[in-house]
Write a structure and sequence with these properties.
Low-confidence stretches: none
Strand content: 15-25%
Number of strands: 13
Radius of gyration: 20 Å
Distance between the termini: 42 Å
Largest sheet: 8 strands, mixed
CATH superfamily of the largest domain: Fructose-1,6-Bisphosphatase, subunit A, domain 1
Number of domains: 2
Helix content: 25-40%
Shape: globular
Mean pLDDT: 94
Order of helices and strands: HHHEEEHEEHHEHEHEHEHHHEEEE
CATH architecture of the largest domain: 2-Layer Sandwich
CATH class of the largest domain: Alpha Beta
CATH topology of the largest domain: Fructose-1,6-Bisphosphatase, Chain A, domain 1
Bound molecules: 7-O-phosphono-alpha-L-galacto-hept-2-ulopyranose
Structural class: alpha+beta
């Protein structure tokens, strides 16, 4: 089927979740971001997270859907709200959705007033999101031009296990640049020292971030963002959320589950301890010793077809501006919402409670 050309045809292609829930999804991340913004820079990351979680949950419960949290704040016994398996929404309508949330991605960033904190979530039809444990995933994220290049050059494929240089060469060719013009975002962690060295030795430039590998992943699909690849191990929930956006935008993520003790080079004893602690739970999710090392791609992480994604800036980052507060709860927020139809919106929303005091401004 040829790709629809007109806006009308694209919008007609949108599934029921995108049609009915995308506008509300925006309000959910906006409200979580505004709540978080009041806690910005106060050094209280848990409290900042808590208020975003509460706000996101309140908004989610207003939505006409049968929602189940698949990627959330943790297990039922450790997270009081938005835990994995929690039912949200009114449950009065027939729209069944699986939900991935990160009410405050980059709690440290928000608590320290640093750039790049966001409120983010995604939805898909029932069964449309990977149901995995909240551990790390080793990731590689690239944009749609790389996917196109791979299709045209089936011998040159991005590979999670290949040397970094192999992947950088493909990205450089796909973007029609030399490797020294490529920028790779990676979390600044001891576990990434070797990878950072490899990137630099291959000639690419490194953008170390203290937290937040989700939005940089999405940025690889946004030309002009200055991010061409994301590497390294970070949260598995972040990987699923990245995959939701990448599936809508035509980019690609490859990821593999890794126990934090393994990724962080802990002792054999600590690794065994974590295995025995987590393996039962992993098995109940269908993850076994045999398949734990499988490489998952965008479709494995997000098998759904009716996908929506929304992210709102809490503190300003390369793509999203942070929340501005005008007094009495009035706020201006900047977001990106994406649907699998291919319709992407950058929105600049202003909430005015006191219309006389805070007249609308440009
Ligand atoms: C990762 C990353 C996130 O926290 O989960 C990281 O994906 C935690 O990693 O974007 P460490 O355990 O090494 O600190 C974030 O940076 C922020 O939530």
């Amino acid at each position: 089927m040829p790709h629809p050309k007109t806006a009308e045809e694209m919008i007609k292609c949108a599934g029921p979740i995108e049609c009915e829930l995308l506008p509300q999804l925006l309000h959910v991340t906006e409200s979580a971001a505004i709540a978080a913004s009041y806690q910005m820079g106060r050094g209280e990351k848990n409290y900042a997270d808590q208020v975003s979680v509460e706000s996101m949950r309140r908004m989610l419960n207003c939505l006409d859907m049968k929602g189940i949290i698949k990627i959330g704040e943790g297990e039922r016994d450790e997270a009081p709200m938005l835990f994995i398996g929690e039912e949200v929404g009114t449950w009065e309508e027939d729209v069944e959705v699986d939900i991935a949330v990160d009410p405050l991605e980059g709690t440290n960033l928000a608590a320290n007033g640093l750039p790049g904190a966001i409120a983010v979530m995604a939805m898909a039809e029932r069964g449309g999101l990977f149901h995995g444990p909240d551990i790390y995933m080793d990731k590689i994220v690239v944009g749609p031009q790389v996917v196109k290049y791979e299709k045209e050059h089936p011998d040159e494929i991005i590979d999670l296990d290949a040397p970094v240089r192999h992947n950088l060469e493909i990205v450089a060719k796909a973007l029609n640049r030399s490797i020294d013009e490529i920028v790779v975002v990676i979390l600044e962690r001891e576990r990434h020292e070797e990878k950072i060295k490899e990137i630099r030795e291959a000639g690419a430039r490194v953008n170390l971030v203290s937290d937040g590998d989700l939005m940089p992943g999405v940025s690889t699909a946004i030309r002009g963002s200055g991010v061409h690849m994301v590497l390294g191990s970070g949260g598995s929930g972040e990987a699923v959320l990245t995959a939701a956006a990448m599936k809508c935008l035509g980019g690609k993520i490859l990821a593999r589950l890794v126990l934090p003790s393994v990724a962080n080079g802990k002792s054999a004893e600590k690794i065994a301890e974590e295995r025995s602690e987590k393996m039962e739970r992993l098995n109940s999710m269908g993850i076994t010793e045999e398949n734990i090392n499988d490489v998952l791609d965008t479709d494995n992480l997000v098998p759904g077809n009716d996908i929506i994604f929304s992210a709102t800036g809490v503190t300003s980052g390369p793509i999203l501006r942070g929340v501005s507060l005008f007094g009495d709860g009035d706020a201006r927020v900047h977001s990106i919402t994406i649907g699998s139809s291919g319709v992407v919106k950058f929105t600049d929303t202003i909430y005015i409670h006191d219309k006389e005091r805070n007249a609308l401004r440009f």
